[in-house]
Specification:
The protein has 375 residues and is of the alpha/beta class. It has two domains: 19-151, Enolase-like, N-terminal domain (Enolase-like, domain 1, 2-Layer Sandwich); 157-374, TIM Barrel, CATH 3.20.20.120. Helices cover 30% and strands 22% of the residues. The chain has twelve helices and 16 strands. The chain has helices at residues 92-101, 113-122, 128-146, 150-153, 173-182, 198-206, 224-236, 251-260, 277-280, 291-294, 297-309, 323-330, and strands at 10-11, 40-56, 59-73, 76-83, 166-168, 189-192, 213-216, 239-243, 265-267, 286-289, 313-316, 338-339, 352-353, 356-358, 361-363, 373-374. Helix 5 (173-182) crosses helix 6. The longest helix is centred in the middle third of the chain and has 19 residues, at 128-146. The radius of gyration is 20 Å and the shape is globular. The structure holds magnesium ion (MG). Magnesium ion (MG) binds next to loops.
């Protein structure tokens, strides 16, 4: 697939058009001598085409808007991505507006990651995906400068990556059966519930496979007693945990459910930033970290540390994203209990090649940074 340079919406700093999105042959460059260069940020809008209409409790869609970023420094390029599923409130317009305010050329040392990302976070509140696409590109750049994948820089063992689940959205039994059959190479499935046909969904998946299942209710259960009843039933069907069973506002009901449920409960929509974790101790069994919520890798890494200190479970997930953001999240996966890193597998027009799922397992590579190359 070729990049169409005319599709670029913005170029910041003084990067020349010729330097945009070059093919990076990762793993071949030698460690870069740092001079007094400037970082140059550029970005463009892109629409991900979903292979199947994606339905969860609340809405359906066929595309996901993203913004793709590059940070260029001394001839190397770090890649990043912001994904904006509509329910999170960001859009290509809002991310563009945010990125236009970011002045990276004030920094001449990309290793000042903490300073740079603290500055980016301070520009405006929210805008989490917009912040993530800078964080990811900066981490990718750092890895390329030292010519190492991030997981190695963090001292992580690539053999400890988890299996990933593959998501089956809410649909009719015929479609669910077909999607489940198509997903036979995965050893765990995540089934979306909360659409009013929960038992039909599970029974249909179970008519095809007996692999372990996760379920994600996307806030779909409003009544705590019915939620507990479902948790007991789901336990009998081989379900491992329940993600965001109840509306995020029903905190007392959630704490009651977590105390009584035979299955662990995981916060997703309720949980965004690092400072949220401590208040969820006792309300949920664990958290679902996504780079588009955490503002990227820097804070996601801290979240894992804090959650472990609170004896909470950790899951790492994603939005529908290209292999760029998914491969970035996968760099942290040796640290988590559960992974749901299938976002790039749900689209038809990925622009990158990155981590692979081999025999259901998240499989890291030796490419530097976030581990991708442009297709
Ligand atoms: Mg979820």
């Amino acid at each position: 697939m070729q990049f169409k340079r005319r599709d670029f919406v913005k170029t910041l700093g003084v990067a020349s058009a010729a330097s945009l999105f070059p093919i990076v042959t990762g793993g071949c460059s030698s460690p870069k001598v740092i001079k007094n260069g400037k970082m140059k940020l550029s970005f463009r809008a892109y629409d991900l085409q979903l292979t199947h209409t994606f339905t969860v409790a609340g809405f359906s869609r066929n595309t996901t808007p993203v913004i793709l970023t590059e940070i260029e420094y001394e001839g190397l390029v770090g890649y990043g991505e912001a994904s904006m599923p509509p329910y999170l409130g960001e859009s290509q317009e809002s991310v563009t507006k945010f990125l236009t305010k970011v002045k990276l050329d004030q920094f001449n040392d990309p290793f000042r990651v903490d300073d740079i990302l603290t500055y980016v976070d301070s520009i405006d509140i929210n805008n989490r995906a917009a912040k993530a696409c800078i964080d990811i590109a900066l981490h990718d750049l750092i890895g390329k400068i030292v010519n190492q994948p991030l997981y190695k820089l963090w001292g992580l063992n690539p053999a400890k990556t988890p299996l990933t689940s593959f998501t089956i959205g809410i649909d009719t039994p015929d479609v669910v059966r077909l999607k489940t059959e198509e997903a036979s190479r995965f050893r765990i499935l995540k089934v979306k519930l909360g659409g009013g046909n929960d038992k039909e969904m599970i029974n249909t998946v179970r008519s095809v496979t007996d692999v372990p299942l996760y379920v994600d209710v996307n806030q779909g259960w409003k009544d705590k007693n019915l939620a507990l009843e479902m948790c007991h039933w789901l336990k009998e069907q081989g379900i491992q945990f329940v993600e965001q069973p109840m509306p995020k506002e029903q905190i007392d009901d959630m704490a009651w459910l977590t105390e009584n449920s035979p299955l662990p409960t995981i916060a997703d929509e309720a949980f965004q930033r690092l400072q949220d974790i401590a208040k969820f101790k006792g309300v949920y069994s664990g958290i679902n970290i996504k780079l588009m919520k955490s503002t990227g890798l820097r804070e996601a890494h801290k979240m894992i540390t804090v959650a472990r200190a609170l004896d909470m479970k950790v899951m790492i997930g994603c939005m529908t994203e290209t292999s760029c953001a998914v491969s970035a999240a996968a760099q942290l996966s040796p640290l988590v209990d559960w992974a749901d890193l299938d976002g790039n597998l749900l689209i038809d027009n990925d622009l990158y090649e990155g981590i692979k799922i081999i025999d259901g397992k998240v499989t890291l590579n030796e490419l530097p940074g976030i581990g991708i190359r442009v297709i």
